[in-house]
């Protein structure tokens, strides 16, 4: 009984590893397709007049300190930026149902945000 259970567990592990390999290949193929001819220096607008709406949000992560004498407050915040880049779209049915890709920020267009009051 133990050997049968061990063989079944081994078969399940091997199957899951083989399906993970397929997922990696599908994700790699999708990344290659989406980023072929993608220029991260070009603003994601169809026409020069079109606006790219960027939603900015900040979440207070932690309060570091308060210096009342100098009227200074130190905090750590997380800044969320959200916009739509029409060039980074695909049909999930054509790519093994992949709906989300995690992409390093250095590979895509980023809005120019300047923090003035730091």
From TrEMBL:
The name this protein goes by in its record: Neurotransmitter-gated ion-channel ligand-binding domain-containing protein
Pfam families: Neur_chan_LBD
Phylogenetic placement of the source organism: Eukaryota, Metazoa, Chordata, Craniata, Vertebrata
Annotated keywords: Signal
Entries under SUPFAM superfamilies matching the protein: Nicotinic receptor ligand binding domain-like
Domain of life the protein comes from: Eukaryota
Record's keyword annotation contains Signal: yes
Keyword Signal: yes
Neurotransmitter-gated ion-channel ligand-binding domain sequence ranges: 28-118
Signal peptide positions on this chain: 1-23
């Amino acid at each position: 009984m133990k050997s049968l259970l061990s063989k079944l567990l081994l078969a399940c592990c091997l199957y899951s590893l083989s399906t993970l390999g397929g997922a990696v290949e599908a994700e790699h193929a999708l990344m290659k397709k989406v980023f072929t001819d993608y220029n991260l220096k070009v603003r994601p607008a169809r026409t020069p007049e079109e606006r790219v709406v960027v939603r900015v949000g900040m979440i207070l992560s932690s309060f570091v300190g308060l210096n009342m004498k100098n009227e200074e407050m130190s905090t750590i915040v997380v800044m969320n930026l959200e916009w739509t880049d029409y060039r980074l779209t695909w049909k999930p049915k054509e790519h093994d149902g992949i709906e989300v890709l995690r992409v390093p920020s250095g590979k895509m267009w980023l809005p120019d945000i300047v923090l003035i009051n730091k």
